[in-house]
Each structure stands twice: as structure tokens, then as C-alpha cells.
Amino acid sequence: MIASPFLNSPIKICCIGAGYVGGPTMAMIAKQCPDIQVHVVDLNQARIDQWNSDVLPVYEPGLDDVVREARGRNLTFSSRVETAIRESNIIFIAVNTPTKSFGIGAGRAANLEFIEKCARQIAECSTGHKIVVEKSTLPVRTAEAVKRILNSSAKDATFDVLSNPEFLAEGTAVQDLLQPDRVLIGGESSEAVERLAQVYGRWIPREKILTTNLWSSELSKLTANAFLAQRVSSINAISALCEATGADVDEVARAIGTDSRIGPKFLKSSVGFGGSCFQKDILNLVYLCEHFGLREVAQYWEQVVIMNDYQKRRFSERIVRTMFHTVSDKKIAIWGFAFKKDTNDTRESPAIHICRDLLEERARLVVYDPQVPEKQIRSELEACFQDSNGRLSETHKKLIETNVSVVKDVYVSAQEAHAIAVLTEWDEFKTIDCGRVYEEMRRPAFVFDGRNVLDRKAWLDRGFEVHSIGRPGVS
Ligand code: NAD
Ligand code: UGA
Questions:
Q1: Could you give the percent of the chain with pLDDT greater than 90?
Q2: Which H or E run includes 86?
Q3: Residue where one domain finishes, among candidates 212, 241, 263
Q4: Element at 56 (helix H, strand E)
Q5: Whether residues 306 and 159 fall in one domain
Q6: What is the DSSP string of 231-300?
Q7: What is the number of structural domains in the chain?
């Protein structure tokens, strides 16, 4: 360890961005390091108010307890961005980096507007020495731009820039933060790297804190997400073949997953991957490869997203085809709208795409999700029908109004329904009383299990026609 006065001065942390990453990660640091002041700031006052209330903006198992322990002690949420920057010596940037929707690289490149604004604001408000930590997922070499902005705009401050990407998954964020597989810190200044490593070192074994150069750290984050998404697309590609041949994708996944070189995780075939990051980060990787003239590499990774789009489309087409080639005016219960279980996040949820396809066919949808509010479901559906100028046609507006209802009881959703489509793998779906559901549905009672969570045999025995992912349909 390097002996330095800089390393020994008290740490004060601020985090810009109180979203799915900023909120939970900072809450965990504050919980584990009671002597470090952690100030999380955001421009979105409504979000800050929620962080300060009993109903947090992020639904994550175990998060309430973590926040409750630290909030008011050494964890603060506010919109006082400048004050927070001024008072801290380690500043995390955890703002959103969505796919660009305009201009050069639209639909592929990451929109770095928010990152740049943060860097400029940090430069303006800082004095003394600050460590600026990229927590957001960023294209390789973004740190170079951040450094230039900081160093050229600052009046009376010096900076070290580190890359410290976040690997938590929603739904398991607390566990992932408590016992991560690794923490990655990339940087040029070994002193700054060590300072940040000391924070994580309070509860994470040092051998799990990996240090690299800046560019490896930035690229490792994109690569990890690309590899994970690739596994999902690979097993989903095989699911199509299983449906055509009579093989069972879950059996195939088990058989290959026991090979220690392959491993069992991320082999669950589904209606497609969703979430705010997989697609965004792969498209970002594709854009980078194209930028560096690596056309074949770009095409290779893009195929992961193409396969995912195919999987979502394949599922809604299967519903329409199976239900006698029309779902017009038929009632379909949609079970689950979040992009995975144990989160209220619906960004890029496959449910949005499937609902859109079914609405285009004029189906009547009754949506049930235990965590996603009705307003959010409607706003996601409206957004997906908007044209490239953000306009929603009167026809689509009306379609959503008249053909979508949202209910708070899973059994109510299936009353008088022609079909059920399971789109999120919420645990409660595993223990549903299929007899009770069957009694209230139209016949034939179709079930399309987009997550393979239902007890297929029990539902078949009860009289349902069951269509699972990666298995031929059976009645
Ligand atoms: P989010 O949209 O939930 O939160 C981002 C927050 O930043 C928003 O509340 C927004 O108001 C705020 N913000 C934007 N500009 C700001 C500014 N100039 N000043 C103050 N606040 C500002 O996003 P997220 O899901 O938390 O993701 C953040 C980053 O972390 C992204 O780069 C993402 O790729 C990455 N990431 C996300 C996850 C995840 O599970 N969601 C996991 C790992 C990494
Ligand atoms: C993912 C990564 O797992 C995290 O490591 C990363 O930090 C994060 O992205 C990020 O950068 O945002 P997350 O998207 O929250 O986390 O959730 P995952 O568990 O990875 O699931 C992503 C999607 O893939 C979900 O829609 C999920 O249902 C789907 N999935 C996952 C499958 O269809 N099958 C699987 O076997 C696994």
C-alpha cells in the first residue's frame, strides 16, 4: 500500500444520479462504511423525494433495510448537486447513458450528453483534488473525454478519473453488492485506485477487487454484458429448433450446463431479454467496432440483438397462429410486465413488444404485474407506438385506452380470457391455482408460457392447451 497524506484524509462521497445503480450502490457503501458520508444527488426532485420516503423508487428485495439503516446517519439524498460536489473528494457519476435517438450514431451509439454535463458541473464547482469515478456504463475511452473536460474547465482543482463499472443485476442488487463476484477499478493513478479500493475493501475481500488500466475496465463492462446477452440469445436460438424438432430446451440447457466449461447460469430460455442495458450496451459495442473499421466483429455482436428481436416476434406470432390465426377482440391475460422478476423496471421489457404486436392484431389485453403501476404500463405502451418524432396517433392512443386494462389480481386477469401469456417469471405464478383459473376461462384455454415457470404437467392435466418456450405445444 502506498503511504500518502491523500490516502489518509477522510473520505466524503457524492454520487450524481439516484437511479437503479446510484441509489442501491451508494446505500450499500453507506451501510458498510458508517464513517463515510455519502450524498446521492439527482436533478429529478420527485425521485429524490421517493428515496427520502418509505416507498423507494426502486423495488429491490432487501433494499429497504439497507437504506433504512444508513439514511439520516451517513446517507443523504438531495437535489443539491453543487453542494454535494463541493463537499466530496470522491465523486461517482451514475447517470443514464441511453442509446442515442438522434444525429450521428442514432440507434447505436451511447448518448453521452448527461456524462458531459456532469463533468462540466464537477469542473465548475470543484476546488482541491477530486477523484471522479465513472460508474455509468460507457464506451471505451470516454474517460479521456471526461479528463479533458475536467482539466480544461476547472479553475482551481485537479482530478483523477477512474472507471468502476457496476455489475449488479436488478432483482438481486443487494446480494450482488454485498457479495460481488468482483469489483473492477481501472485507472492511471495507483494512489486514486487504492483510495477507492479501500472503500470497497471494508467488506469485499481484496482478491476480488481487480485493478486494470482505464480502457480495459471500460471495455470489460460492455464485454460482460455482451457475453451474458449472447448466452441468452444462444439458448433462445436453440429454443426455436426445439419447438420444431420435439426436443425440450430446458433439458438441453441442463445437459449442456453441467459441462463445467459451459456452466449452468444464463441458459434459461425466455421470451427474450429485456432491461435497460443489454441491448443498449451491445449496440454501443457494435457502434464502436464499426467506428474502428471492424465490420465482422460488429456484425457478430449485432446478431445477438437480432436474435432477441426474433425471439420476441416469434412468441407473439406463435400466439396468433395458435389461436386460429386471429386474436382480434379476444381477451388475453398478460402475466408480468417487468423485464424480469423482483424488479419494477420495465425498460426494454419484452412484454412491451409482445403487447404491441398483440394490440396491432386488435387483441384485448388485461395486464397483471405485482410491482409495476398501471401508469407505467400505459406510458410504456404509448411510447412504443410513437413514431420517430415522438408522436402517438389517435388510433393507437384509442387502441391503448380501449383494449388495455390493468388489474391488481392475477385471477381477475384471467376471467373470461381466451389465453394467458406469461411474460415475467414472478415466483407467484408457480403456485397459481390452475383449476380456479381454468374454471373462469374460455375454451380452449390457451396458455403461452414465455418463461417456462408454470408446472406444465399440472396445467395440461387440468385441461389447458400449453405452449412453452422451446417445446412443441401440447393440448
Ligand atoms: P437511471 O435512469 O435509473 O438513473 C439515472 C439518473 O441520473 C436519473 O434519475 C437522472 O435524473 C439522473 N441524472 C441524469 N443527468 C443528471 C445530472 N446532470 N445531474 C444529476 N442527475 C442526473 O439509470 P440506471 O439504471 O441507474 O443506470 C445508470 C448507469 O448505470 C447507466 O450507464 C447504465 O448502463 C449503468 N448500469 C445500470 C445497471 C442497472 O441494473 N440498471 C447495472 C449496471 C450498470
Ligand atoms: C444485467 C447484468 O446481468 C448485470 O451484470 C449488469 O450489471 C446489468 O445488466 C447492467 O449493466 O445493467 P439485468 O439486466 O438487471 O443485469 O438483469 P439480468 O439478470 O442480466 O437479466 C437481463 C434479461 O435477460 C432479463 O430480461 C432476463 O429475464 C433475461 N434472461 C436472463 C433470460 O432470458 N435468461 C437467462 O438465463 C438470464
A1: 96
A2: helix 81-87
A3: 212
A4: none
A5: no
A6: HHHHHHHHHHHHHHHT--HHHHHHHHHTSTTT-STT----S---SSSHHHHHHHHHHHHHHTT-HHHHHH
A7: 2
Give me the CATH number covering residue 69.
Answer: 3.40.50.720
Residue (of 311, 301, 254) closest to 280 by Cα position: 301
Ligand 2 neighbours by CB, cut-off 6 Å: 137, 166-170, 225, 228, 232, 266-268, 270, 273-275, 277-278, 339-340
The rounded distance, in Å, linking the Cα atoms of 210 and 212 is 7
Q: What is the mean pLDDT of residues 363-384?
A: 98
Q: Which ligand is nearest to the CA of 169?
A: 2
Q: Which of 270, 279, 282, 304 to mutate to test the pocket of ligand 2 (most atoms within 8 A of CB)?
A: 270
Alpha-carbon torsion, ordered 140, 146, 149, 155, to 10 deg: -160
Is position 218 within any domain?
no
Question: Which residues are identified as catalytic?
Answer: 277
Tell me, rounded to whole angstroms, the distance of Cα 186 from its chain centroid.
Answer: 23
Separation between Cα atoms, residue 76 and residue 59, nearest integer Å? 19
Q: Is the dihedral of CA 164, 167, 170, 171 positive or negative?
A: negative
Note the pLDDT tens digit of each residue in 125-139.
Answer: 999 999 999 999 999
- Predicted confidence at residue 266, as pLDDT, reads 98
DSSP-assigned beta bridge partners for residue 336: none
What is the pLDDT at residue 4? 57
pLDDT score recorded for residue 246: 95
131-188: pLDDT as tens digits: 999 999 999 999 999 999 999 988 899 999 999 999 999 999 999 999 999 999 999 9
Where is 306: in which H helix or E strand?
Answer: helix 295-322
Phi-psi region of 335 (alpha: psi -120 to 50; beta: other; left: phi over 0): beta
Please check whether residue 102 lies inside any domain of the structure.
yes
Ranges of H-type helices in 404-467:
410-414, 434-440, 456-461
- Residue where a domain stops, chosen among 193, 212, 231: 212
Q: What is the pLDDT of residue 155?
A: 86
Q: Where do we find the cell 437480432?
A: 306
Q: How far apart are CA 41 and CA 83, in angstroms?
A: 10
Sign of the torsion angle spanned by Cα atoms 276, 277, 282, 287? positive
Domain span at residue 122 reads 4-212
Alpha helices (H) along 126-172: 142-153
Distance CA 114, CA 122 (A): 12
Mean of pLDDT over the chain: 96
Nearest-atom number in ligand 1 for the CA of 276 is: 41
